[in-house]
Amino acid sequence: MIVVVAPGQGSQTPGFLAPWLEDATVRERIGQWSEAIGVDLAHHGTESDADTIKDTALAQPLIVAAGIITADALLADGRRALVGGVAGHSVGEFTAAAVAGVLQPTDAVALVAERGRAMADAAALEPTSMAAVLGGDPETLAQALDAHGLVPANHNGGGQTVVAGTAEAIAALAADPPAKARVVPLAVAGAFHTRYMASAVDRVAPVAARTVVTDPTLPVWTNADGSRVDDGRQFVDLMVRQIASPVHWDAVMASFQQAGVSGIIELAPAGALVGLAKRGLRGTATVAIKSPDDLPAAIELLQRAQRAETTEVTA
Description:
By secondary structure, the chain is an alpha/beta fold.
């Protein structure tokens, strides 16, 4: 079984949308979304520098728009039937919701734009940040976090935990990392998935409640605990609550393993989740779609899995 995954904030890079905009249909669609949310996605996805697109209010709709565009290209011509399910990391859950049919694409981009603005405003209340901790002993890491007043925000699996708190505390941890661990500050503007985002939850919740939601037509897994969710409204409610609660991507990967997932395709702007899969789901085939040039390899992975399943049934 092949699953499609959508990355979260921090995966954006300058110009990452440019190759997709060579398609006139994509340019038109991006233009419509830009007008709907009041953000020039085409400009920021092609011209803006890294510091500019680090802004949460820009990064989040950019990432989700790119993911939806990528999924449309990947799953065209009946290939949606070859996918065993979909999941997204943090803001990537909005992409997953669109791919699974929980949200209409335009609604997903509009809702995530509000999420991005609300989280940016929450982040502006106090200087906060996040960092990835790679390796190290879990108990030693927990002690270090307690000492600095930091908390785990993303349980990513594959030996990676993202921690969050005040910018001062993140800097202190980076300067004195736990034994056998490496601390990498992330290109995000706040302590996401922590109590610092409580005001953003309050802002996004009523907008989400007014958004049309349907039940998923593809299996979709939640970051809340890694479980599959079959109720669309429940999935959206979990996405909203998770603005201020931890991401459990390690639990999602465990669910993939239990479900017999043999391959993972990551939507643009890809790379981070494939990297986690290579460490946490060893032996799983992976394709990261960074540009349209990567689509043939992803399509081949889907078709190869279909041929293997057909052979098993015939045998």
